[in-house]
Each structure stands twice: as structure tokens, then as C-alpha cells.
Write a structure and sequence with these properties.
36% of the residues lie in helices and 24% in strands. By secondary structure, it is an alpha/beta fold. Helix 2 packs antiparallel against helix 8 and helix 3 packs parallel to helix 4. Strands 1, 2, 3, 4, 5, 6, 12 and 13 form an eight-stranded mixed β-sheet that branches. S-adenosylmethionine binds next to helix 2.
């Protein structure tokens, strides 16, 4: 197993220019993709274990209940392309249910973590061709060749990471997925649902402070990689639910008026000014299906838990394999 770093792999200088651009904008922002160095990926795994973070727990329950049905829809010898792979828990469940899966292609921007996770998985599934791709999945990327020709491509995108993208960008990303799945291919995707704002607030403001640590980690990363001097004690985590847009907005708030140096540039903050670090859009079932349709996907099946917290969707690309 070796990684493919293709031409869409994030170039360090491009990522840094993007960060500086965001931090000098009128409303300061950093894309959530920059959370994920190895420490960020591990902190995210801790978030998934938190009692307040119903998303992972509920999605795993849906997987346990419905992966037999998913396996019969997908059929034998599929290649699974996982966008934003993270840890291996969900893909192991999927591989354990699918019929003779041919290949697994985890795609992620967190390169070191991706390689470690993919290597561990390859050891445990010797019959599955595992080929990691280090890339920014918002742009089309080249798929590796497999020794056994897969019968179809299945794009796997759990975790409601789709919620990090505002609607127009989410549509673009779903189009990239459709291109990678190819005609006759399929998509299995998790989407978090609209619900009582109190539950959402608790999930993104956990009592142990892990989400705060995850949010602040992006500044730690900037200090290391972009020669920054952010004092983390001068910023605080905030996550609020914006009912109008149906999204959680995560922020880092400047506790005081301050100037920070980053890659030789001075960035000033007023007291109370904030950096937007993540959106997490929540969907209705119809709203998500309409979004997916607008990107050329045909909705086939939707599974939802009894409390209607989370949804798992199976969609296909029209055309023959
Ligand atoms: C919210 S985590 C979800 C992880 C896992 N799929 C799950 O369901 O628990 C998002 C994952 O996507 C990756 N990621 C985020 N933005 C990305 C991008 N633009 N390109 C590639 N990977 C990205 C992160 O590194 C991280 O592993």
C-alpha cells in the first residue's frame, strides 16, 4: 500500500495564501479543512466519542441496522472511494458487510493520519486493494488502478461532512463525487438533520472542552506552520445555531484587542471580533434529496433513526456501469 499524491494534493503555499486571504477579509474566516493536521484528526476522533456528539453514535447505529440492505443495493466487487476518510471505524463496518469488496480508496487532506489509517486497514483486509489518495477532495482527482476490475464505484461520505459546505459549494462537491463514481456508480452519505437547537448547541459546546481544543488547534497549527504568534489564551471557542440558515457556526473570538503576526504579516483583532472556522448545515430529508438531485444524483433510499436525528442516503448516478 502506498499513497498517491496526485496533482490535486494541496500545495502548502496555496493553502497558506488561502489562510492569509481569509484572515485579512472583512469577516475573518478559515476553512474547516485546515483543522486537520494529525493532532486535529485525533481530536476529531475524540469528539466522536463524546456523549453530547449524537452524530457519530446515531450514524453507527444506522449502519448496524441497515448495512445488510446497503450491501444488497451495492452488489459484489465494488470499489469504495471514501471522501474525508478520517479514522477507520465506519469503513471497517462497511467492508465487513459488502460482498467481496475489490478496492478501498481513502481520500483525505490530513496526509500523515491518512497513511497510518490506510496502512492499518490494508493489513486487516488483505483481499481489498487499499490505495490512499492525499488530495483536496473539492477538486476532481485521478483514481488509482486496481488489480481486480471493480464492478462499480461507491463513494462513501459519512459523518455529515457535507454540512461543512454552504449549499452552492455542497452542490459542487456532490458533482465531483458524481464524476468519481462514474455512470452506474453510487453514493452512501450521512447528513445531519434539523432538530431542537438545544441538542445542537450541546453537541458543539461539549462539557469536556474537546471541541474548543479542536477549534483552537487551528491557531496552534498556524503558529507552527506559518510562523504565527497567536496566544491561544487570548481566543475562545464559540458555537451558535443560526436558525435562519439552518447551520451551526463555529467561531474563535478574540478576548481582547490584539495584533498577531503570521507569515510576516500583521493581523489586528478588535475585542470580541471573531474568525468563522466552520459551518455545519443541518438538512431536512427533502432538502438534502433536492440538493443531491441538483448535482445529478438519483435518490434511491433514505434511512433515519427513530428520534430523527440523523439520516443516511443511498443515491445512484444514472447510466450503466
Ligand atoms: C468531520 S471529519 C469526518 C471523518 C470521518 N469520515 C467520519 O465520518 O467520522 C472530516 C474529514 O475530512 C477531511 N477533509 C476535510 N476537508 C477536506 C478536503 N477539502 N479534502 C480532503 N479531505 C478533507 C478531514 O481531514 C477529516 O478526516
Amino acid at each position: 500500500m502506498s499513497p498517491t499524491a496526485n496533482n490535486t494534493a494541496p500545495k502548502v503555499s496555496k493553502a497558506h495564501a488561502e489562510i492569509l486571504h481569509g484572515l485579512t477579509a472583512k469577516q475573518k474566516h478559515i476553512s474547516p479543512k485546515h483543522f486537520y493536521d494529525e493532532r486535529g484528526s485525533r481530536l476529531f476522533d475524540q469528539i466522536c466519542q463524546l456523549p453530547e456528539y449524537y452524530l457519530t453514535r446515531t450514524e453507527l447505529q444506522l449502519m448496524d441496522s441497515y448495512f445488510d440492505e446497503v450491501a444488497s443495493l451495492v452488489g459484489p466487487r465494488a470499489a469504495i472511494i471514501e471522501f474525508g476518510a478520517g479514522s477507520n471505524i465506519k469503513i471497517r463496518k462497511l467492508l465487513d458487510h459488502l460482498l467481496e469488496p475489490a478496492a478501498y480508496v481513502p481520500v483525505d487532506i490530513s496526509g500523515d493520519y491518512l497513511l497510518k489509517q490506510a496502512a492499518a486497514l490494508a493489513l486487516d483486509y488483505p483481499n481489498v486493494h487499499v490505495q490512499a489518495v492525499f488530495a483536496d477532495f473539492t477538486h476532481p482527482f485521478e483514481l488509482p488502478q486496481h488489480p481486480v476490475m471493480p464492478e462499480r464505484n461507491l463513494v462513501f461520505f459519512p459523518g455529515s461532512t457535507i454540512g461543512n459546505f454552504p449549499p452552492a459549494q455542497a452542490q459542487d462537491l456532490l458533482e465531483v463525487m458524481r464524476l468519481e463514481a462514474r455512470p452506474g456508480g453510487a453514493l452512501l452519505i450521512g447528513a445531519d438533520l434539523r432538530k431542537d437547537p438545544a441538542l445542537l448547541h450541546a453537541a458543539y459546546n461539549d462539557s469536556q472542552g474537546v471541541t474548543a481544543e479542536f477549534n483552537l488547534n487551528v491557531l496552534r497549527r498556524l503558529n507552527t506552520e506559518l510562523n504565527g504568534n497567536f496566544d491561544l489564551a487570548n481566543f475562545s471557542h464559540q458555537a451558535i445555531y443560526d436558525e435562519t440558515h439552518g447551520r451551526i457556526e463555529m467561531r474563535l473570538i478574540s478576548r481582547k484587542s490584539q495584533t498577531v503576526s503570521l507569515a510576516g504579516q500583521e493581523i489586528s483583532f478588535e475585542a470580541g471580533e471573531f474568525i468563522t472556522t466552520e459551518y455545519s448545515y443541518k438538512y431536512s430529508l427533502d432538502g438534502f434529496s433536492a440538493l443531491a438531485r441538483s448535482a445529478g444524483w438519483e435518490p434511491e433510499r433514505i434511512w433515519v433513526d427513530d428520534d430523527r436525528l440523523f439520516s443516511m442516503h443511498y443515491l445512484t448516478v444514472p447510466g450503466s456501469i
